[in-house]
Amino acid sequence: MVDRGGSVVQLMKAMGLSPETVERVSQLWGKSAARNGGRRHLLLGHLLDTAAVAELMWDQFLSPAFRQRLDEISGGRGRLWFMWVCGIHDCGKACPAFQAVDSVEAAPVLAAGLNWGRLPTDRRKMWRHDVAGAALLKPRLVAEWGSEESAAWVWPLVAGHHGVFPPVQGIEPRHREVQGRGPAWAEAQRAVVDVFTRAVGFADLADVRPVGALKKAEQLALSGLIVMADWIASGGRVGRGLADAGLVSLDEARRSMAEWWAGLRLRGGWRGLPLPRTRLAPLTDRLAVIPRPSQRELVERAWSIPVPGLLIAEAPMGEGKTKAALAAAEVLAARFGLDGVFVAMPTQATSDPMYEQVLRWVRSFDPQLESQVALLHGRRRFQASWRAIWEGKPLPDGDGEGSDGAEPNCARGDAELGTASGFDDFGAIEEDADFGMVPAERPAEGLSSFDADGPAHWFLDTKRGLLTAFAVGTVDHLLHAATRTRHVMLRFAGLAQKVVIVDEVHAADVYMRQFLVEALRWLGQARVPVVLLSATLPPAQRQLFVNAYLSGVLGRADVHEPVPQSAGYPCVTLAYGANGRAIAETSREAVHSWREPIPVELAWLPDTEVSGARVAEAVRDAVADGGVALVVVNQVARAQAVYEELRAAGFDGQLHLLHARLCAAHRADRTAECLRLMGPQAGAERPERMVVIATQLAEQSFDVDADVLITDLAPTDLLLQRIGRLHRHSGTRRPEAHRAPRVLITGVVAEQDGVPRFLGASESIYGRWSLLRAAALVAESAGPLTAAGASHGARSRPGKGWSIPADVPGLVSRAYSDDEICPSGWREAEALEEWRAKELEREKKAEEFLLCRQREWAAPTLEGLHYAGSRAATQEQLDAVVRDGDPTIEAVIVHRVPGGYRAYDGTWLGVHGEVDDDEATDRLMGGTVRLPARLTSPAVEALRPLPGWADRPWLKYRPALVLEDDGTTLLGAHRVSYDDVLGLVVAPA
């Protein structure tokens, strides 16, 4: 051990390095003045800065569990080892390819005697410092550690710190000149590693050798933490670099980085959570609920699981699963040393109210933790509480549920800078430009408040959001961490220190499910507790998720551990590893739902017309004597048509329309209004007569209570989710005619031979097989399907109805079983074959983007992880990776008027669309609307941001949908308009 108090020059002299080597190392630069605020910063200074940041992260950011793992593999020296592995990342900058990038900075290096010949100018042959670092470090680690195995998992951490992990062949330079030739370069490169190693506190490089190895998923998390430390250290030297090696020391780095860290307000979450005082205190004390049996079961299972593992909670809609999951997360975090929670929701619309719930929950631990709760989606600006907290303004009155109801895909304003690259593109580009990092001293996303006790704006970048201690977002953010994309390690590092909760896990289609399965493998190997929630989970999916998590735990791709039959519904399934064995358990005793089963009457309403006339007639009949009706259809145009039919007929009652093509402000207002009038707290405000016409937005996580449901046919599990909005809240007053819950199933008619014909949009979305199965199950209760025009008021024969929630697991199981349940004439086998072929095609399509190929899952290191290059340069491209289907874009509605433009609500914008302040920006962005997929190509070709938006961070990437004097515009072969009630209207030109 050496004295670390002196400068690196003193240390080099004490190590006996020659004066020439001391001078050469003292001139190697790490940050050029041109890119560092006018101040050069030496390479050793940057390495020590990063080590100093790592030390701060160890003390104030890393979870107890991850610190323990680093202690285990380093022989109890985790703190020191973490400092070393973070700081050594840029040792590859000690090579000609990097030092020659800036001619001004290169001059003193050349003058010190570090020369180079002609370097290649072809980008395919250029040499980047991340791989250069691996190339110079790998042979030394093998030689001085005496172990190829020990070195094999460490050098990729250096090679991958710019976002991609190359194969071992990728760290062999094609031209020797780029890495440095001759004894002068060899001595300087060796000295950089040795001097840094001694300055940090190790005796020599051999002393650094780990006594064990992290698992591959843990390596990925560590890699993300290295990137985090690097980026923070880089930002901390902008405008205050050190060009004199005599001033560079670990102590100086500690002082500077501590000041920078404090200014950024970075911290972890709980920082060591004590065990709850009683087993049910997380429910009774923290969340103030009287535990229902299903909630009690989940929390008890969190106490009983012996090691971090997977918990799958299945319980009826409205059972309180998410609160139970938060309580279970507290238990799991306290028992296993996790430092936060990520809650993944199916959509942005469901993320906003969940953010409010998590915010209240986190405040119960410590009110100051509210600034550590992130909302991760592209329209979070419209969430009132998030905006208030992150801008340092007073919180809104009430719950602040400014739900925008947006779709999961983020807008172009969240675009990540930079471009994807393959391994033939290792040009020596300085890192700030390379990863598109916004200078750290600038407030992100236009936020300007820097209260000392406020939130850490550093986390607002789209790649960094999951690093916040507590985060709520769409499931996409979890899936992104399972994609072979640049900087995937940052996303995974954020997950690896948390408990992960995924709500409505059944909502993932077969394409998204491939990424969910991949994420579960990595989380299982990283020993991250995961809680999956669903009311309607098919048994095959439950088994798939268990196998995936256990594959990660055991490090094998072929694990299959049968899940035992549950004693009933609700139930909790556990999956974990113990002594090298895979274990799957489920609830051994029946767990009763908090409410008694309710018989739900089903009847057919044969209709496949987009016009909606027949549905509108049924709605009028259903609420003729009062009541609240929910209409859920599978097509925006059909929802608009039903609304227009009712409006034209002079419907006497409240009428609401909710779908995906409303602008953000209208959708937020209507969602909030529906929740107010139909939610659990509605009480006396519940209208006497009301109809809500919606698309699939109302299918799940929409806490409303309807007296009667009219719905297009959907796959059985989704149909049950829609039924979950029916008679949902106890104590709701209802008209006598609606004492018993009733469902009319439409969107389907019988052909002459009795075979179902489905609404075209439904078959396009869901496929014919799943709809046939659903129709067969409904027919068992509602009687045979009839042709269009049959009376909707009566069934052809009495039916037994469905008992909800008791029948839910059986219905879902039968819907996705191998048993034939359709009448022979329905050609079910043919539909099944077509469905399987499409499902397989979608699975194969997803495989192109999965983080790891199945045959390479057991590989022990990250070497070659990005085997086919790094995909997805922007947020929209990243969203497209994890969601199948035609791409869509969002645009901001503006009206062209004499002398300039106005926002959708009439706000004056200026001659070129200029926006004067944040309030006007908010009003303008309230007009953001998602265009249907058929308009994507013409929109990409024709739409651009207005010139006046160039200096507005939230607007400069967003295309404007400019409506002319007549309120319309042409996009390709379509005429597009926006109606304040109907939303976006698309018609043939």
TrEMBL record:
<dbReference type="InterPro" id="IPR054712">
    <property type="entry name" value="Cas3-like_dom"/>
</dbReference>
<protein>
    <submittedName>
        <fullName>CRISPR-associated helicase Cas3</fullName>
    </submittedName>
</protein>
<dbReference type="InterPro" id="IPR006474">
    <property type="entry name" value="Helicase_Cas3_CRISPR-ass_core"/>
</dbReference>
<dbReference type="InterPro" id="IPR038257">
    <property type="entry name" value="CRISPR-assoc_Cas3_HD_sf"/>
</dbReference>
<dbReference type="InterPro" id="IPR041372">
    <property type="entry name" value="Cas3_C"/>
</dbReference>
<dbReference type="InterPro" id="IPR027417">
    <property type="entry name" value="P-loop_NTPase"/>
</dbReference>
<dbReference type="InterPro" id="IPR006483">
    <property type="entry name" value="CRISPR-assoc_Cas3_HD"/>
</dbReference>
<keyword id="KW-0067">ATP-binding</keyword>
<feature type="region of interest" description="Disordered">
    <location>
        <begin position="393"/>
        <end position="414"/>
    </location>
</feature>
<feature type="domain" description="HD Cas3-type">
    <location>
        <begin position="36"/>
        <end position="232"/>
    </location>
</feature>
<keyword id="KW-0540">Nuclease</keyword>
<dbReference type="InterPro" id="IPR050547">
    <property type="entry name" value="DEAD_box_RNA_helicases"/>
</dbReference>
<dbReference type="Pfam" id="PF22590">
    <property type="entry name" value="Cas3-like_C_2"/>
</dbReference>
<keyword id="KW-0347">Helicase</keyword>
<keyword id="KW-0051">Antiviral defense</keyword>
<comment type="similarity">
    <text>In the central section; belongs to the CRISPR-associated helicase Cas3 family.</text>
</comment>
<dbReference type="InterPro" id="IPR014001">
    <property type="entry name" value="Helicase_ATP-bd"/>
</dbReference>
<dbReference type="Pfam" id="PF18395">
    <property type="entry name" value="Cas3_C"/>
</dbReference>
<keyword id="KW-0479">Metal-binding</keyword>
<keyword id="KW-0378">Hydrolase</keyword>
<keyword id="KW-0547">Nucleotide-binding</keyword>
<comment type="similarity">
    <text>In the N-terminal section; belongs to the CRISPR-associated nuclease Cas3-HD family.</text>
</comment>
<dbReference type="Pfam" id="PF18019">
    <property type="entry name" value="Cas3_HD"/>
</dbReference>
